[in-house]
Fold:
Amino acid sequence: MKTFAFVFARGGSKGLPGKNIRPLGGVPLLAHSIRAGFEAGVEQVFVSTDDADIANVARAYNAEVIDRPPELATDTASEWLAWQHAVQHLREQGRDFDVFLSLPATAPLRSVDDVRQCLQALDDKTDVVVTVSPAARSPYFNMVIREANGSSRVVLGDAGFKRRQDAPEVYDMTTVAYVTRPDFVMQTTGLFQGRVRSIVVPKERAVDIDDALDFLVAEALYNKCQ
Structure:
């Protein structure tokens, strides 16, 4: 089984400009994902980007660069289309592979074991493997929908659960890793169009960096583990 890992890192980031190459522990954020892919044993890591600085960092850490078209690198562009572009790009080069592993740059605290668990979970009864962590809020009790006038209601308050212990346990999806097959990427338009299996990752390894506060949290946790 040939596995290729991908990091999809566009240049624009409104929440934290320059995020993908911002140093964390002296290493560009992007490089943590590249290293995780190689350490997990994949054949090659690819970085899909529209940004020259990101491309230079990717090459410095032995990743191959896939030039992402500008229309697939906007704030509103679906990343799934960037996934399809990457698969198609490699197929046009005659580089077929069996397993597609996405390692977002925004989750640098993942462990190599987290990645390996996800890879091992992809079996013939599974189309996609995602990662989750225990949710701090429950849609059955303390997640609300708020109207423009301030009127609010519990998201799933009509489910009838009176005690938290009786309600299903809920999880947050994380960006630690996504595992699927190239054919699934090309033939569908989203993760949950297939049979999805999840791997639980502790919150401290599942931080998703979107803004400056997230980065400070990741930095504190990273330094604590060194």
Summary: Residues 136-169 form one domain. The first helix runs from residue 29 to 39. The chain has a mean pLDDT of 94.
